[in-house]
Amino acid sequence: MTVLEKIQTAKSPLFTFELLPPLKGHSIDKVYASIEGLLEFNPAYINFTSHRNETLIRERPDGSLEKRVARIRPGTIALAAAVKYKYDITVVPHVLCGGFTREETENALIEMNFLGIHDVLALRGDPVRGSRSFISEKDGHENADGLVRQIVNLNSGRYLDETMEHAVPTSFCIGVAGYPEKHFESPNMEADISWLKAKVDAGAHYIVTQMFFDNAKFFRFVEACRAAGISVPIIAGLKPISALNDIRLLPQTFHIDVPNDLYKAVAACKDDVAVREVGVEWATMQSRELLKAGVPGIHYYTLGRSDNVAKIVRGSF
Question: Which of 67, 119, 167, 297 has its CA 20 to 30 A from that of 275?
Answer without folding.
Answer: 297
